[in-house]
Design a protein that fits this description.
Largest sheet: 5 strands, mixed
Strand order of the largest sheet: 2-25-24-23-22
Shape: globular
Mean pLDDT: 81
Number of strands: 28
Structural class: mainly beta
Radius of gyration: 20 Å
Helix content: under 10%
Strand content: 35-45%
Length: 373
């Protein structure tokens, strides 16, 4: 399989999100505005060659990538064409399309957040390009092809839907979690089992979007009288409060939160700093601080952590402790398993209908590591 295939695609990303700042680790190539534990390094030639590769599959369609298959070879996207539009699985090598779910109204329907865990694909579908208050959460069984509606703003009612804009979803095994406002208007973390179709409230109060970590849900929580939120945990099985992993208990001021099997990453409440922790570390580290704009939408592949900023997507190598900003000519990045998918378009945080862009699919085994500095 080639290391890079360039495809036609579109961009749709929306969403949001410390006082424990460390001294920056300076090195050759360090740029103003980029501080923290990781230094800035030049983009390796193998990455430059991959991103500069010419067009591959070109068909009259557009795509908005929201998840990649961890096993490699395929990714999932909102797919738009003159004959059919909906959620699809696409081959990185050939561009072949497997239809999963049809959009009821392609002129309105878009994908905000999504995840794939091998058995299940789940996504939040926005039903309007002009607001975030009309949405549905869907789940698709990759083995049986069965499609199920998990939750919707319509089921909440208009008043609660207006207080629950476009929920960020987390997926692990058969479990999916998100935050929505309960009947009393208090935010609730919902935990839904896709196999048994049972739903429970995992936590309530001033809670933020959760992420799965081993047998627990981690989530930001702001307690009465606190200036910064802190990390809480709840057992997936019993829904009882659980211990936060050693090394994370001191984390404060958490914004957008994400985790893989190996690490936890989040945005500081300043929305520009990126914090990283993995088992064995005594405390989290600030690996990036932007001078302005935002840092959000984290995903991980191998030793790499990728996220989006107002100046373009960033790739960080946790083994060499270095990072590179790909630049504003690229719109966003999605990573999973052995692949990093990078969209080629200017960053656009406005909610717009699928503008055309190119997607480069990078096989991390075929490119060199970022250089230490």
């Amino acid at each position: 399989m080639p290391s890079v295939v360039t495809l036609l695609a579109v961009f749709l990303l929306s969403g949001c999100a410390s006082p424990l700042a460390r001294m920056p680790r300076q090195g050759s190539g360090t740029q103003p505005g980029l501080t923290g534990q990781y230094c800035v390094t030049p983009l390796p030639t193998s990455w430059q060659d991959a991103l500069a590769a010419g067009p591959g599959v070109t068909t009259p369609k557009t795509e908005s990538v929201f998840a990649a298959a961890p096993a490699g070879g395929t990714y999932f996207a909102a797919f738009y064409s003159a004959t059919w539009s909906g959620v699809a699985e696409l081959s990185i090598a050939s561009g072949a399309v497997r239809r999963i779910a049809t959009f009821a109204d392609p002129s309105q329907d878009q994908i905000g957040f999504g995840a794939f865990g091998g058995q299940w694909l789940a996504w939040e579908e926005s039903l309007s390009p002009s607001n975030y208050d009309s949405w549905v959460i869907w789940a698709w069984n990759a083995s049986t092809g069965a499609l199920a509606e998990v939750a919707s703003s319509a089921a909440l009612g208009s008043s609660l839907a207006a207080q629950t804009p476009q929920p960020e979803i987390a997926l692990s095994g058969d479990e999916i979690a998100w935050v929505q406002n309960g009947p009393s208007g208090i935010p609730e973390i919902m935990l839904h089992n896709l196999a048994t179709k049972s739903t429970a409230i995992a936590a309530q109060g001033a809670v933020g979007p959760p992420t799965f970590w081993e047998s627990t849900l981690l989530y930001p929580s702001l307690q009465r009288g606190q200036t910064y939120n802190e990390l809480k945990a709840v057992s997936i099985q019993s829904l009882a409060p659980a211990a936060v992993p050693v090394g994370l208990s001191a984390a404060r001021g958490l914004g957008m939160l994400s985790a893989s099997v190996a690490a936890v990453v989040w945005t500081g409440t300043d929305q520009t700093s990126v914090w990283y922790w993995q088992p064995g570390l005594r405390h989290p580290f600030e690996i990036y601080t932007g001078s302005n704009g935002f840092a959000e939408f984290y995903s991980m592949a191998g030793p790499y952590v990728v996220w989006d900023t107002s100046s373009g997507p960033i790739v960080a190598d946790t083994e060499t402790r270095s990072l590179v900003n790909l630049g504003s000519q690229y719109g966003y990045a999605v990573a999973a398993g052995s692949w990093i998918l990078i969209a080629g378009d200017a960053v656009n945080q406005q909610k717009t209908m699928h503008p055309l862009e190119t997607i480069s699919a990078i096989d991390i085994a075929a490119v060199s590591a970022l250089a230490a500095c």
